[in-house]
Automatic annotation (TrEMBL):
Pathway: Lipid metabolism; sphingolipid metabolism; Sphingolipid metabolism. It is a multi-pass membrane protein. Signal peptide: none annotated. Keywords: Glycosyltransferase, Membrane, Transferase, Transmembrane, Transmembrane helix. This is Ceramide glucosyltransferase. The lineage of its organism: Bacteria, Pseudomonadati, Pseudomonadota, Alphaproteobacteria, Hyphomicrobiales. It is found in: Membrane. It comes from the Bacteria. InterPro entries: Ceramide_glucosylTrfase (IPR025993), Nucleotide-diphossugar_trans (IPR029044). The chain crosses the membrane at residues 6-26, 274-300, 306-327. It holds the Pfam family Glyco_transf_21. CDD domains: Glucosylceramide_synthase.
Length: 383
């Protein structure tokens, strides 16, 4: 009887915590709406885009970057190697949009074991304006991209970010990627912000350049293997907050394989484990696996129906997730619940992997992440 009560209580606490995180995230998130450009004088913005390789949506993401509805902005594309196939596409896009100030910078500044950060250094130092956005090349920028970032800036803000929202999945494994990105990772990040625990996300980062330069500039982000972890700690150290945009930006996915999902999730888990171990430790409790196991133990001890217990727990977890996705206009399909189940089967394995050392892949780079440091060994890009 004691075992039954403890298992039932713990399962209930985890289910309620899951529901509370969805409610908190929903309170911070807004459905997509268009924000008009400023009518008066606007702040000019530099957008630094580190690029590597050609992806299925590269043509579209480039077009979007040149089509922003902001009065004054410049684009700075950064590529580490001149023979990268994306160089040709970037040069063609610059030629098609001569009215938008844009530059392509080539070369690599090895300031850290983080290849993306190394690629961004030259762009940051070349930026002409006081407001700088570091934007991943696979972000699908809406025309009011800058407006959303600027709208989230407050007097006590040190950084504005956006989590990636997976869209346009092609195939079941891409739906699993959506389940990871949207109603799990983005949801918990917005719930954390609602509780005053703002964490940076490297997909889109709006910086006030003089502020960061006064604290060591972009090179200060080499203090951690992940630039968003370093950014979080730097901003918090200044007594400022990391804010998230109210309507996060899309990342179109296309096709995904199980191997690609595992590679990304294992890498991210290992990075979170190294940079924020106290927050990483309870991640095993965020999926349905642990509360479901506890509920089944309690049901078996009490002689209750195991199938009904299984269905009740899964419904308590996944129906609210689907409601959140529907309310915010995120991808939702008849296969999403199955994708969420598979996600929560993968999650404990990646969590366990996060506690181990060894090499992980970072877009063609083999990276060995130790307890406090990382070593980077460049390998041929799959692109």
């Amino acid at each position: 009887m004691e075992l039954t009560l403890i298992a039932a209580l713990l399962s209930t606490v985890l289910i309620v915590s899951n529901l509370a995180s969805i409610v908190l995230a929903a309170s911070r998130l807004k459905r997509r709406r268009i924000i008009a450009p400023p009518t008066g004088k606007s702040q000019p913005v530099s957008i630094v885009v580190p690029s590597r390789g050609v992806e299925p949506f590269t043509h579209e993401t480039l077009e979007r970057a040149f089509s922003l509805d902001w009065p004054r902005y410049e684009l700075i594309f950064c590529v580490a190697h001149a023979d990268d196939p994306v160089v040709r596409l970037i040069r063609a896009a610059i030629a098609r949009f001569p009215a938008v100030p844009a530059r392509l910078l080539l070369g690599d500044d090895r300031i850290s074991a983080n290849p993306k950060l190394n690629n961004c250094v030259k762009g940051w130092e070349a930026a002409r304006h006081d407001w700088v956005v570091l934007a991943d090349s696979n972000v699908l920028m809406p025309e009011d991209y800058v407006q959303h970032l600027m709208a989230a800036w407050r007097p006590d803000t040190g950084l504005v970010c956006s989590t990636p929202i997976g869209s346009r999945p092609d195939g079941f494994w891409a739906e699993v990627e959506c389940a990871f990105l949207n109603t799990l990772q983005a949801r918990w990040q917005y719930a954390g912000e609602a509780l005053g625990l703002g964490f940076a996300q490297g997909k889109s980062m709006l910086w006030n350049k003089p502020m960061l330069d006064a604290s060591g500039g972009i090179r200060a982000l080499a203090a951690e293997i992940a630039e968003d972890a370093a950014a979080t700690k730097l901003v918090n150290g200044l007594g400022l907050r990391v804010n998230l945009v109210a309507s996060p930006f899309e990342q179109p996915l296309g096709r995904r394989s199980l191997g690609e999902i595992w590679s990304r999730q294992a890498r991210w888990a290992r990075l979170r484990r190294v940079t924020f171990p106290l927050f990483f430790a309870p991640e095993i409790l965020t999926g349905a696996a642990v509360p479901l196991m506890l509920a089944l133990v309690a049901a078996a001890s009490a002689g209750s129906s195991l199938p009904l217990t299984l269905l009740a727990v899964l419904a308590a977890f996944y129906l609210p997730e689907c409601a959140l996705a529907s309310a915010k206009g995120w991808h939702l399909s008849p296969r999403m619940i199955a994708a969420m189940v598979v996600r929560d089967m993968i999650l404990p394995v990646t969590w366990a992997r996060g506690w181990l050392g060894g090499a992980v892949d970072w877009r063609g780079n083999a990276m060995t992440i130790g307890t406090k440091a990382a070593e980077l060994e460049e390998t041929p890009s799959s692109a």
